[in-house]
Amino acid sequence: MDQSFFMMLSNLLHLHDYLDPTTSTAVSSFAAADATSASSAQLLFCTIATVLTYLASQPFPKKAAKNSSSSSLPAKPSSEFSVAAFRALSTEHIWSMEAPLRDAQWRSLYGLSYPVFTTIVEKLKPYITQSQLSLPSDYAVAMVLSRLAHGLSLKTLASRYALEPYLISKITNMVTRLLATKLYPEFIKIPVSRRRLIETTQGFQEITSLPNVCGAIDTTPIKLHKFSHDTINSPMYYCKHGFPSVLLQVVADQKKIFWDVCVKAPGGYDDATHFRDSLLYNKLISGDVVWEKAVSVQGQPVRPYIVGDWCFPLLSFLLTPYTYNRTSCSPAQNAFDDALMKGRRAVEEAICLLKGRWKILQDLNVGLNHAPQTIVACCVLHNLCQIAREPEPSSWKEPEERGQPPRVLENEKSCYYYGESLRQTLANEVYQRLSSN
């Protein structure tokens, strides 16, 4: 210890003895009796001066270098996208806003309204909690929805949320997998109940005048943002429009709600091959799915069926147009084609809404292994929005499609001949109804 420290202690001891002589062991009675207020003030001044001198003599701790301190601390997310900002928006400000304004803001951020968002969080929260994610469940879901709705890259999200890109990718994969597996069975279902079948077929009949249509089928290529030419069978991923893609097949009802989704093939596959590889085709061709609601048309029983374009095979459960350009057709056949294409418009518009609402599907920036689950997750989200009657955003414009009718397979011949007969019966019925009006 240095001399200034001992001097400080000595002065403090003298000051204590003067102020309280009864506790002193070193001061005399003469010093206690003759002390004056002036000496007290002088002693106090000396004590304070000694303390200040001692403090001034001590070295101050050195500041860490600017670069080292900044590198050791984790980056903070932008205040607009921090957990605190999200929590304030979702729990505090949300109830002070009018519902239309609240939902408009939520849609601009996450692609859907606040009530739909809370529904998703409530259904996924138990599974996200099990994963022991370090982020709140609703915050993680919001992050993934913002990526799906705006097509944001990992780099952009990593900068916005101050997280490592690998963690953003991990969270995206987890949430899309849960949507595609846990919520798919609840929100994407084949219409087999009588009540739903009646509602669907009546809805299509109002649009097309065709009886017992229960769905419309179509495919669309989902463009891959990054594609490695080292991928096995890489040429097969290039679709007819010239870009690498995977093929999405959907069946929609009259409300543009998907009731079947399939992503199993590279974009270079034709529609008929993809359909024949799908689970839906196998269920229908084998009779695992049988729609009991049959109606009689000109004495012929007509069970529920789906409609597609000329790129799909003509079957007893899938009717297609006679031609795509109305050539070499009778008036009855032209009338049937017009009616059928009105029904197909439902699935075409559903696909355009899907890509318009979830912009990541316009240029899919996830790995090829995670592409199918991301696409299916967006289809589930699309159905949630349609069921909740969310406003329909600006639609994506699909390119025009042309193709030749597929050949009939040996195991399909009986279904093909029945479908051909059924199509002609419906064509005659539609034309007679139009002629009588």
Would you kindly provide a written description of the structure presented here, covering whatever features stand out?
It is a single chain. With 437 residues, the protein is α/β, with parallel strands linked by helices. Helices cover 53% and strands 9% of the residues. The chain is built from 16 helices and 7 strands. The strands form 2 sheets. It has a 5-stranded mixed β-sheet. Strand 2 (245-252) and strand 3 form a beta hairpin. Helix 7 crosses helix 10 and helix 10 crosses helix 15. The protein is globular, with a radius of gyration of 37 Å. The N and C termini lie far apart (114 Å).
Topology:
Layout: H1 3-19, H2 29-34, H3 37-57, H4 66-72, H5 83-92, H6 99-110, H7 114-130, H8 137-150, H9 154-161, H10 165-187, H11 194-208, E1 213-223, E2 245-252, E3 258-266, H12 271-276, H13 279-286, E4 295-297, E5 300-302, E6 305-307, E7 318-319, H14 331-357, H15 371-387, H16 413-436
Parallel strand pairs: 1-6, 6-7
Antiparallel strand pairs: 1-2, 2-3, 4-5
Helix pairs in contact: 1-3, 7-8, 7-10, 8-10, 9-10, 10-15, 14-16
- The coarse silhouette is globular
Fraction of residues in helix:
40-55%
Low-confidence stretches: 21-38, 60-74
* Percent strand: 5-15%
**Average pLDDT number:** 83
Salient structural properties:
437 residues, 53% helix
